[in-house]
């Protein structure tokens, strides 16, 4: 299996198979207005719908009402931490497939372990690097949207 010659089992990337991110919704959650504005500005280059929440409780309400595909979630927030929000999202069968990317200034191993235990899918460290953020969001949002398309396709086949 050789991917370098173009004759292997992997198809050439022609851009035609790109996922349409405009059908996706991303929720940005941060209690710091400057962080929220910065991440929102970075995300404007993507064609997806952007929602914001300013704390964990507002995030839970937005998730239940708007069903975003991906959440960029700050960890350290008043009223409800990002860890708690993540646990609630992943414990609910209606929202457990939502992709969670924790955006955090925490760098301790214990914090990373706690984030994984709470169910997060990936991390982005603060200060946020625009290229890293957009690359991770594009990849994980694209994967989430493909999974949704597959579920719809399989459901339609079962009805036939």
Portion in strands? 15-25%
Question: Could you describe the largest sheet, including whether it forms a barrel?
Answer: 5 strands, parallel
The N- to C-terminal Cα distance equals 37 Å
- Principal-axis shape equals globular
Instruction: Count up the helices.
Output: 5
Calculate the mean pLDDT score and round it: 88
Into which percent range does the helicity of residues fall?
A: 40-55%
Indicate the structural class. Answer: alpha/beta
Cα gyration radius (Å): 17 Å
* Strand line-up of the largest beta sheet: 2-1-3-4-5
> What is the β-strand count?
5
**Poorly predicted residue ranges:** 1-16
Helix and strand pattern: EHEHEHEHEH
Quick rundown:
This protein has helices spanning 33-43, 56-66, 82-91, 109-118, 130-159, and strands at residues 25-29, 49-53, 70-74, 99-104, 122-125. It is an alpha/beta fold and 160 residues long.
Description:
The chain has 160 residues and is α/β, with parallel strands linked by helices. Helices cover 45% and strands 16% of the residues. A 5-stranded parallel β-sheet has the order 2-1-3-4-5, with helices on both faces. Helix 3 (82-91) runs parallel beside helix 4 (109-118).
């Amino acid at each position: 299996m050789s991917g370098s010659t173009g004759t292997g089992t992997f198809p050439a990337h022609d851009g035609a198979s790109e996922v349409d991110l405009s059908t996706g919704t991303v929720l940005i959650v941060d209690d710091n207005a400057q962080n929220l504005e910065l991440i929102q500005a970075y995300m404007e280059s993507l064609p997806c719908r952007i929602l914001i929440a300013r704390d964990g409780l507002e995030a839970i309400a937005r998730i239940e009402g708007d069903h975003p595909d991906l959440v960029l979630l700050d960890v350290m927030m008043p009223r409800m931490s990002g860890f708690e929000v993540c646990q609630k999202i992943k414990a609910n069968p209606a929202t457990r497939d939502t992709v969670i990317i924790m955006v955090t200034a925490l760098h301790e191993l214990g914090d990373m372990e706690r984030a994984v235990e709470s169910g997060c899918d990936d991390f982005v460290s603060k200060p946020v690097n625009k290229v890293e953020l957009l690359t991770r969001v594009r990849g994980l949002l694209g994967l989430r949207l493909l999974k949704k398309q597959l579920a719809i396709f399989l459901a339609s086949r079962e009805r036939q």
